[in-house]
Write a sequence for this structure.
């Protein structure tokens, strides 16, 4: 990869990281769960960078998003390991969706709407599910005391985190599908 293209990738990672943090702050103003988490579209910029540049760029943008949230204090902190799981790991794993970057790009360029929609939904599901898994583990280990008396900790964590992760997945999948159907050039990293 030439230096110009590397510079563009780094600039886009920085911009998408900033956009993710801003979107998370805005969505957190309207609905914030009592022990952290919110229905949020902050994953969209991380998915977008993952689809444009692949897994490494997605992991980097997600990790930076978590670091920035910790740095600005936009967090719900209980323990250092919980911070690692809920912020660094949870946001970084969204970048795994970049494994589908070439499939999504090819489907968008060839105007195969069905394949594009299926690929985006699967990729967004995998990234969202991995984030959800990190939050569930953190919730069961560090927030188990919030579980109702007769509810097992894992069931509580699974259901609590699903209340905001399922809607977040659906919103992100719909927005990204519509975005790539109407503007497939967003997936191009080369000058057309």
């Amino acid at each position: 990869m030439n230096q110009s293209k590397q510079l563009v990738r780094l600039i886009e990672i920085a911009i998408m990281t900033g956009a993710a943090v801003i979107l998370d702050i805005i969505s957190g103003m309207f609905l914030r769960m009592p022990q952290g988490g919110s229905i949020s579209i902050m994953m969209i910029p991380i998915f977008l960078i993952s689809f444009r540049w692949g897994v490494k760029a997605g992991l980097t943008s997600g990790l930076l998003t978590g670091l920035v949230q910790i740095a600005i204090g936009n967090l719900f902190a209980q323990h250092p390991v919980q911070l690692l799981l809920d912020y660094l790991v949870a946001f970084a794993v969204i970048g795994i969706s970049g494994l589908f970057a070439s499939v999504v790009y090819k489907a968008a360029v060839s105007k195969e709407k069905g394949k594009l929609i299926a690929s985006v939904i699967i990729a967004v599901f995998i990234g969202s599910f991995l984030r959800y898994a990190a939050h569930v583990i953190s919730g069961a280990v560090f927030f188990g005391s919030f579980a109702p008396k007769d509810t097992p900790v894992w069931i509580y964590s699974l259901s609590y985190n699903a209340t905001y992760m399922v809607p977040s997945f659906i919103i992100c999948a719909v927005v990204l599908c519509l975005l790539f159907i109407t503007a497939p050039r967003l997936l191009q990293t080369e000058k057309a």
